[in-house]
Write a structure and sequence with these properties.
Blueprint lengths: L3 H11 L17 H13 L5 E17 L18 E14 L5 E6 L4 H14 L5 E6 L8 H9 L3 E5 L10 H11 L9 H15 L1
Parallel strand pairs: 1-4, 4-5
Antiparallel strand pairs: 1-2, 2-3
Length: 209
């Protein structure tokens, strides 16, 4: 019994946007509060004589090439690209964001197995001075908890793993770096091979650092 204009005015007055819907997921982790406090504590007040890294993998990054060249931006006209593309293989990106400096250690591999994760831990180990402990924030991926990883940790006592809560990988700060990589680089790039994609990612990470 009221006009569309009135409905619109009511929506604007109360800040209502009924066409939008957000989603949420409640974590069932029984140690939810303890894990949140642990990770936030590492971010806000890191241990003395230690390096803190946020670590994760971005799997199956596709080397995509457009079927026609991208047309550049012009006055009044945005850049234009074909909606279709050619797939030229995939790679997996490991990244470790150092909380204190924002610098990132990267490693690009064809997959992300437990052995690949251990190899990346070895790379972090080589980058950190030997007199510092190393605290690593990471998610609950099964490859992070295998016997191979456990044996490696026994041989490298200065490493300490801190797992995000179940369904709480958003707490891992390196996810923000992955987002920047996607929106600032990968979304508008074209690659004819995995080798070209890897070189582009490494160059972008070097510029970031």
């Amino acid at each position: 019994g009221i006009s569309h204009t009135t409905v619109g005015e009511i929506w604007r007055a109360f800040g209502l946007k009924p066409w939008r819907e957000d989603a949420f997921k409640v974590s069932p982790d029984p140690e939810l509060v303890e894990k949140i406090r642990d990770i936030v504590g590492l971010y806000m007040n890191p241990p003395v004589a230690a390096a803190v890294f946020a670590v994760d993998e971005k799997p199956q990054i596709q080397a995509l090439d457009r079927t026609a060249p991208t047309l550049p931006m012009l006055p009044t006209t945005p850049a234009r690209a074909t909606h279709d593309y050619q797939r030229n293989g995939t790679c997996d990106l490991f990244a470790a964001l150092e909380i204190a400096t924002g610098k990132v250690i990267t490693d690009i591999r064809p997959r992300h197995t437990s052995a690949d994760f251990v190899a990346f831990l070895n790379k972090i180990n080589r980058h950190v001075p030997h007199d510092l402990d190393v605290h690593v924030v990471l998610d609950n991926l099964s490859a992070h908890k295998t016997p191979t990883v456990q044996r490696w940790l026994l041989r490298h006592r200065r490493f300490h793993l801190h797992f995000t809560p179940t369904y709480g990988s958003w707490m891992n700060l390196v996810e923000r770096w992955f987002s920047a990589l996607t929106t600032r680089k990968l979304q508008r790039s074209a690659h004819r091979s995995v080798k070209a994609l890897a070189a582009d990612i490494e160059a972008w990470a070097a510029t970031w650092n």
